[in-house]
């Protein structure tokens, strides 16, 4: 029996934008250029520790998109192992998101990142996100129906059919075919000889595919729940694979949550642009696929502008001289840190890490006093080391965010 036209996987066409028009070429070039410059003046050790802060931030904003307002310090405490039974599920989500992004960053740095569009990679993200989830987190309710979601498994039976706003995703039985087609169209490393080739190696093609794949994945809505979180992690991996990951110093979640306009207007942009890209083709001049090419181009342009906005913000935030001044300001405003502690922070900023025995020389204080200042910075979380007596490097605990990274959080 032939599949109904509306259930053919090609319904996601146009999947990609192959002919650049309007300002898309300029937007792609600007994203690539800004990503290349982000963090270039920082010591690699400092940049690596700042990427920890970015993961914390992305976890916060990914939760915010889902309607969960978790405070940065609560996420930080959950990562440290603190547990609040009343917040268990929120803590589980936060820790899972942070750890998965950390793994993606590590895989990208080592050259071991799988193809982000590979269904097995995507299913593993979902499986690992919900590892250890409570029964309540896995219970999906719709009207008078409920069922238990299996982490890492596509929607597969009629009771898992969904409606997202005004959009009706493919029926559950068709999801595997749609995700196979998704991989066919969005594979960054396509198998040779396939009829509909994937994205391939070009940076511009991969950047555009990162935007369009984000929408088309959510349009398919392959899992009963968790699609938004998985799509943002997938997009983070695609940014790395596109060459704009900037060592994990930025990610798209903050931009999707905040939009480009200030306040509530900006917070509604993501949903609005996703809805425009959901539209079916509007006449003969709107592409040749089932869905609207104009809607996809609108979403892609907005997505790239959000990338530029976030790259610009992070570049300003992590610029060496500006960060140096904010470290001095943090010490000046502190009621507990002596002014000499700024010298240790500045040295760690410039050199990446410093040996503990250098505290006396750097602070120009007597040995005992220098050790006391060093211990104070460690106790407050501004300096830390990977081993009990090893060199110390800068850290950025949530208590410092107001002075070191203003406007980072909503």
How would you concisely characterize the structure shown here?
The chain contains 18 helices and four strands. It has about 400 residues and is mainly alpha-helical. The strands form two sheets. It has a two-stranded antiparallel sheet. A two-stranded antiparallel sheet has the order 3-4.
Relative helix content:
40-55%
**CATH class descriptor name of the largest domain:** Mainly Alpha
Order of helices and strands: HHHHHHEEHHHHHHHHHHHEEH
Strand residue percentage: under 5%
Rough outline:
globular
Per DSSP E runs of 2 or more residues, the count of β-strands stands at 4
Decide which structural class fits the backbone: mainly alpha
Low-confidence stretches: none
Per CATH, the architecture of the largest domain is Orthogonal Bundle
Kindly identify the CATH topology of the largest domain.
Answer: Fic-like fold
CATH superfamily of the largest domain: Fido-like domain
Number of separate domains: 2
Our count of helices gives 18
Major beta sheet summary: 2 strands, antiparallel
Distance between the termini: 52 Å
How would you state the average pLDDT, rounded?
A: 92
Q: What Rg do the Cα atoms give?
A: 23 Å
């Amino acid at each position: 029996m032939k599949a109904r036209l509306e259930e053919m996987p090609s319904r996601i066409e146009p999947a990609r934008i192959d002919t650049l028009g309007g300002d898309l070429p300029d937007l792609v070039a600007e994203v690539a250029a800004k990503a290349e410059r982000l963090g270039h003046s920082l010591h690699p050790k400092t940049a690596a520790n700042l990427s920890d802060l970015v993961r914390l931030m992305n976890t916060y904003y990914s939760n915010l998109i889902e309607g969960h307002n978790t405070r940065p310090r609560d996420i930080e405490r959950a990562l440290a192992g603190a547990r609040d039974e009343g917040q268990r599920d929120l803590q589980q989500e936060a820790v899972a998101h942070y750890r998965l992004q950390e793994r993606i960053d590590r895989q990208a740095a080592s050259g071991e990142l799988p193809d982000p569009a590979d269904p097995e990679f995507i299913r593993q993200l979902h499986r690992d996100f919900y590892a250890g989830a409570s029964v309540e987190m896995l219970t999906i309710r719709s009207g008078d129906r409920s069922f238990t979601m299996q982490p890492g498994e596509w929607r597969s039976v009629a009771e898992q059919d969904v409606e997202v706003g005004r959009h009706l995703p493919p029926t559950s039985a068709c999801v595997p075919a749609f995700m196979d087609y998704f991989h066919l169209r969005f594979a960054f490393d396509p198998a040779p000889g396939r009829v509909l080739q994937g994205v391939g190696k070009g940076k511009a093609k991969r950047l555009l595919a990162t935007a369009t794949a984000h929408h088309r994945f959510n349009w398919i809505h392959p899992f009963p729940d968790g699609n938004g979180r998985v799509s943002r992690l997938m997009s983070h991996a695609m940014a790395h694979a596109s060459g704009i990951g900037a060592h994990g110093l930025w990610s798209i979640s903050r931009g999707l949550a905040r939009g480009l306009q200030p306040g509530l207007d900006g917070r509604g942009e993501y949903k609005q642009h996703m809805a425009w890209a959901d539209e079916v083709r509007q006449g003969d001049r709107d592409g040749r696929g089932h869905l609207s090419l104009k809607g996809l181009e609108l979403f892609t342009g907005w997505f790239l502008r959000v990338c530029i906005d976030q790259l610009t913000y992070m570049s300003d935030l992590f610029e060496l001289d500006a960060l140096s001044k904010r470290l001095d300001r943090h010490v000046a405003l502190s009621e507990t840190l002596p002014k000499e502690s700024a010298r240790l922070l500045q040295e760690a900023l410039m050199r990446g890490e410093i040996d503990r025995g250098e505290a006396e020389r750097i602070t120009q204080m007597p040995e005992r006093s220098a050790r006391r200042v060093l211990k104070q910075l460690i106790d407050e979380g501004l300096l830390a080391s990977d081993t009990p007596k090893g060199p110390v490097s800068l850290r950025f605990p949530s208590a410092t965010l107001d002075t070191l990274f203003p406007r980072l959080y909503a």
